Amino acid sequence: xxxxxxxxxxxxxxxxxxxxxxxxxxxxxxxxxxxxxxxxxxxxxxxxxxxxxxxxxxxxxxxxxxxxxxxxxxxxxxxxxxxxxxxxxxxxxxxxxxxxxxxxxxxxxxxxxxxxxxxxxxxxxxxxxxxxxxxxxxxxxxxxxxxxxxxxxxxxxxxxxxxxxxxxxxxxxxxxxxxxxxxxxxxxxxxxxxxxxxxxxxxxxxxxxxxxxxxxxxxxxxxxxxxxxxxxxxxxxxxxxxxxxxxxxxxxxxxxxxxxxxxxxxxxxxxxxxxxxxxxxxxxxxxxxxxxxxxxxxxxxxxxxxxxxxxxxxxxxxxxxxxxxxxxxxxxxxxxxxxxxxxxxxxxxxxxxxxxxx
Length: 358
What we know:
The protein has helices at residues 2-27, 56-68, 82-88, 103-106, 126-138, 141-165, 179-194, 207-238, 261-268, 279-288, 298-303, 333-346, 348-356; strands spanning 34-39, 47-49, 52-54, 71-76, 94-99, 109-111, 116-118, 121-125, 254-257, 273-276, 293-296, 310-313, 320-327. With 358 residues, it is an alpha/beta fold. The chain has 3 domains: 32-118 and 321-356, D-Maltodextrin-Binding Protein, domain 2, CATH 3.40.190.10; 132-238, Helix Hairpins, CATH 1.10.287.70; 244-313, Periplasmic binding protein-like II (D-Maltodextrin-Binding Protein, domain 2), CATH 3.40.190.10. The strands form 3 sheets. Strands 1, 4, 5, 6, 7 and 13 form a 6-stranded mixed β-sheet that branches. A 5-stranded mixed β-sheet has the order 10-9-11-8-12, sandwiched between helices. Strands 2-3 form a two-stranded antiparallel ribbon.
């Protein structure tokens, strides 16, 4: 009898605790004191730190949960496209990520009030900046004139060395008596000598030829010095010129996260889009040389991009407001909106932005 009474008291106490929790949630206008959120790794907004959520949006959500007095569990997914689908399937109540409302999404989901404004921006891997600048340098008019002038001088020296050495061909000379073969020998020798390569397969043996060799070696000092100086100057002036700044000047495929508004925009603008499941995959593809250009969130490009050698370029194509996603007609939307308004008014969201993005 005593054992049965003890069990009844334990059950009653547990019931009181559960009812009290439910009553507190109902008094606060909340559907429950527990919520499930779905997240994916999108630095610096959400960072999966061995199952623990970190990052700008994760911190904002944590403040929302604390403000509402609720507990939450996290469901991690591998791709951005799975976030809202998990909410649709009932696997989570809230999608925590930089989500932008669109007409298509609004027909199926609801979104909370805006947390931050953003938009798509181009980025490129720094390796193409150097190759592009070098190409521009050698196509520079002054550099081309210098190269053309050097070629003319080398041709003249080639003729002169051939004229000086051709009579020695039948004895021990290295330059053919025939004009075409001999001029090719002379041009080869003048170029090898001027560029200080010095193979030694052809050497002048006459006094005139050796005098020309001295002249060519001295000339090469000015030629190489002038060429290097001119190319360096052009490279320095082109350093601030970016290979492309918008989709109109983009001449190569661009990587973007599948299922995002950025991907839809790039495709609508006619860009050759290469889709990846998440931001990390996009940045790693650029780092490995699989792609040279990316479209991403400007905060991600500036904060995380440099770790992968990615340089932001141009400006944001258009402004969009990013926020959390919930199921359509979700009872969580209004409480979350109220909490976000409180956090905006207190300056807490701005402080989080400063820690992660500014």
